[in-house]
Amino acid sequence: MAERFISTDTAVDLTNCDREPIHLLGNVQSFGALIAISADWIVQHASTNVDRILGLEGEDLIGRPLGDRLPRDIMQRLSAMIGTATHENSVVRAFGIDLLGDGRHFDIASHMTDNSFIFEFEPTEREYGHDEMAQVTAMLRKVSNQPDTLSAAQAAAEQLRALTGFDRVKVYRFGPEGDGTVIAEARDEADTESYLGLHFPASDIPRQARELYKRNLIRLIMDVDDTVSPIVPQVSPEGTPLDLSMSISRAVSPIHLEYLRNMNVRGSMSVSILQKGELWGLFACHHRTPIHVDYQRRTAVELLAQFFAYEIERQEARALSDASGRAQRLHDRLMVRLSSGERLEQVFPTIAEEIAKVVGYDGIAVYSDGTYLTRGAVPTQSQFEGIARFLNTAAASRVYATDNLVARLPSMAEHADVAAGILAIPISRTPRDYIVLFRSEVVRQVKWAGNPEKAVEVGPNGSRLTPRKSFETWKQDVGNRSEQWSVTALRAAEAIRVTLLEVVLKLSDEVNAERKRAQDQQELLIAELNHRVRNVLGLIRSLVSQSRRTASSMEDFTAAIDGRIHALAQAHDQLTRTEWSPVAFHDLLTKELDAYISGEHDRVIVSGPRILLAPEAFSSVALVFHELVTNSVKYGALSVPSGRVSLDIAQLPDGRTQLHWSETGGPAVRAPERRGFGTTIIERSIPFELKGTAETRFAVTGFEAIFSIPERFVTLLPESPEVATSAPAELLTPPALSGVAMVVEDNMIIAMDAADILETLGVQTVHIAGSVAEALRVAEANTLSLAVLDVNLGAETSLPVAQYLAAQEVPFLLASGYGSNDGSLARYPQSTVIAKPFTIESLSKGLAALNLDAKNG
């Protein structure tokens, strides 16, 4: 809008503007007259002030050209002032203007707001040979010579008081929460009350007022008891009040006037201190009697405030530079001490000493690879592990600091004496290791200028936000807080982080050892997973095998189930052969189909991308598709030559993978009257174990099942490798057995299944034991001809049982989910080892190796 009506290069002729009058509302203090014009028309003015200060007739001005009241040369000068404005918040000033040609001089300020130009006129009686700027130059020199922020603030307060004549000048600095503290004060010697060090709540300067302070840098109140002049007319035809944000003579809120009266202040001036466009603080000037600071002196005040803001910025930049230098020197010292190849634990005392030279702390700890080393006042390891879990939720590779840990981690409320504040320095990415500096609680006596929790009272303006009635110091204990971490400390901490990461990279021997430990741990994990998954497969097979007694044809049913479990075991072996890495879903499906329709794979049409299944999902999906294939072979589309199955694989928009199994051309389908074990696996395995979804439909045209698997369990394959098929397993001729046998197994169902297999092979009696103690009692009470021992029995192993049987010359088989690769077997007496799950094939093969036919003969 400003660019449309105001030229920044050429003076504007107010008499030639074509803008319509806008009527707005406002109030003006008695020291200034205000006139708002739109085009050439006077649309508003401060009624009584215009009459008193300018001597113009009041309401007769509305709707008249300003040029009818002012000399032509003055109108040209006013037009030139408008032309020099660079933006809407720009204020242009002129000093000592003979406005009416009658010898009276005025200071004039002009700015644009909405659709109007506002002119403010202040009469002046001073002689303009006096040069304020010469005074300011000397004042600036005194401020710039100070060594730190507090000293510079004190010098600025003293110079500003000397320039303006106020009884008291305070430098008020805002805190991070909007509250503030008086950090410097210059006052008359007769005024014994001091505000230095007082803390003021954020409610003293509301958010709206702060935003206004950022636009209009000076706020002057000549007399809190002054009579203000209303703007006439009050509103425009659109009902819009006049925006007086940039006006120096506008009146202030009655609330603020009451605030000043409570402090026994008659005259006041506030000067903004801005840092990078934000409000850093204020100069607050107070006087016991009315006081007026003219425009020229206010301009000098503005210059002093702007220079002070620059000086603060310069000092803070210098402090940061010094911090960077100290951090670099710390980096150099640490590199010299740490790059010799010693472990972090060995050089921890050195690290603690060097950091203490730069950053103050009450305690320090290093937490690396589960090791917790400390110095000074620190939490216990169990307490720190809670802190470490909290830190792991913060941004990675970044220093974390707080002076109020309890506010973010309430569980530390009882330990603020050692960990009220922390500065955490991550020294690795995976795992998350830290060096943490601790600061204990500092119960600070904050001197409040009134109770900050009692801001609303009933005052002259009703029940609303009202200034506190008493300005006596009110002390508040601030608990659960430590001394704040300075910008310097944070810079040093970041340098330490970079240094220690460099050191860790240089300690190659430690890195290699860590990598070897991680590799060993991974192999152990793979073996453990192998063991556990084999136990699960054994459990499933045993459950199915135990249900054969309810089948109409037990032999056929048992043979079919054994074949299915054997196919699942082969698929699982493929998973473990890939070292527990993702396996192609097509391989799983091929193995299932080979068991039933070998050579007829064209009856199952698979479309969509090829996918890999994560190890965690492999067994669940294998069980589900095993049931789908066997049910289709027995009852569905694959039970007749004309039947077909389509399997569509698709990736959904949310990242999940959908598997759609659809059968056609088979016998008519109807929903079963009861849900069997196989149907339960199909409908519940993927939702329960993988948190996916499963839906089945028993349509007349054929059975359908739709599954969705979460994204983290599926990887898309870019290419389609060939699928290898497995030859059916060859069953061995089982040996003939007799006598009494024992099965030692901590899973009852698996043990029962092994016992049934032994009875099938000819054993008359089989005892089952689930622990070492129970197995030894059975062995002592019976004459055993054979035993099958599971190596791992939960929290113990079957080694004592094996040793007892070997002493009694009782033959036994060892069963392990790890197979012959189980490292713990070296301690066992020599025997044959078989892999779980138990099948008639695996037991027969193991028993044949023991040559039991001769021993039982």
* Overall 3D shape: elongated
Structural class: alpha+beta
Which residues form runs of ≥5 with pLDDT under 50? 1-25, 721-732, 853-857
Beta-strand level of the residues, as a percent range?
15-25%
For the record, what is the CATH homologous superfamily label of the largest domain? Answer: GAF domain
Looking at how many chains there are and whether they match, the oligomeric state comes to single chain
CATH architecture of the largest domain: 2-Layer Sandwich
Strands, count: 37
Write a brief caption for the model.
The protein is α+β, with helices and mostly antiparallel strands and 857 residues long.
Quick tags:
857 residues; alpha+beta; Beta-Lactamase; six-stranded antiparallel beta sheet; 23 helices; 37 strands; 37% helix; disordered N terminus
